[in-house]
């Protein structure tokens, strides 16, 4: 065994030497140019592919990295949404040819040639960097925009789906196990039942809107009714149509799944239910409103927010962690999601009237987050009705 280990170490040393001999000179030459490789951390997930490059392009527009010519090495086959990658290709130098990628990829091992985006959305026990650019960007229009040809194609597709011209709609998405069954056992605590959105659907339709169920083929549908389109069941289900819908909705009713971040980079607000883990309870967009899943102990008792946020539980990322801690993750109720949507609709209509102590409750809850929490520093909000359910606890925290 020791001999085998020594042999492996020797072979690795030889490999590193060969690598240095082949790529050292090209790396040195490339370093003298303005080209740099921008490294998307998890390109196979649409949320990361969306906000990581959005962060980079906004930072570049604000002056950081302005001297560099950004290059992304990424075959379409590795992108969570190839159409999204194609759109980003209008803003960066995209090298998608697999053979060219294989040749150039070793150059990304030289730290001086790469711009890592890990801190944008992949942080553990610290705040996601995306919040910083959201605050710095302010009210500027979004960078991400679909090409006119795709916008026209999407408009015609909505007519095919039966939506009247000029009608507004809301995207509705509830995470389930259909999208990524291979690692479903790790993330099933994030799932939720789309039927809990039915009361919210009623309110949207009553206001004159349409509801478009988002998701993968085979995902559970909303009950058929006037004003509802189960888009994954249609022949129009596609990567490009996913982008069109998420970037043209009045708002996105979602959760902790990355599809809602297409709305975020498009400058649209999100109403987010069933947020978990607690450290990631806020939305990424400045006008997002969110509510959290509840945690209960096996004996039925409910830990207070302060207890959860002060412990490692707030940063649990895997289902087995909740099980080992003796915690049950419970979905938001139909009424809670309805109230979340009503607040969003009223805010968009300019008629929302904040109740007394509303801002106090927001401040009290926000104080629970520290720099070790994923959404620390966000400018979004928690649903007021949800906070009011816990007003006694939150106001007691503020007074302490």
Reconstruct the topology from this structure.
Blueprint: H1 2-31, E1 35-39, H2 46-61, E2 69-73, H3 82-88, E3 93-95, H4 98-104, E4 114-116, H5 118-121, H6 130-137, H7 148-160, E5 169-172, H8 184-187, H9 198-206, E6 210-213, E7 228-230, H10 239-248, E8 251-254, H11 260-265, E9 270-275, E10 289-292, E11 294-297, H12 305-309, H13 319-324, E12 327-330, H14 334-349, H15 358-366, E13 381-382, H16 384-389, H17 391-399
Parallel strand pairs: 1-2, 1-4, 2-3, 5-6, 5-8, 6-7, 8-9, 9-10, 10-13
Antiparallel strand pairs: 11-12
Helix pairs in contact: 2-6, 7-10, 9-14, 15-17
Q: How would you characterize this protein structure?
A:
This protein has 400 residues and is of the alpha/beta class. It folds into two domains: 23-122; 148-399, Rossmann fold (3-Layer(aba) Sandwich). Helix content is 41%, strand content 13%. The chain has 17 helices and 13 strands. Helix 7 (148-160) crosses helix 10 and helix 9 packs parallel to helix 14 (334-349). It is globular, with a radius of gyration of 23 Å. The protein starts with a helix and ends with a helix. The mean pLDDT is 93.
Give a summary of the structure in a few sentences.
The protein has 400 residues and is of the alpha/beta class. The protein has helices spanning 2-31, 46-61, 82-88, 98-104, 118-121, 130-137, 148-160, 184-187, 198-206, 239-248, 260-265, 305-309, 319-324, 334-349, 358-366, 384-389, 391-399, and strands at 35-39, 69-73, 93-95, 114-116, 169-172, 210-213, 228-230, 251-254, 270-275, 289-292, 294-297, 327-330, 381-382. The protein has two domains: 23-122; 148-399, Rossmann fold.
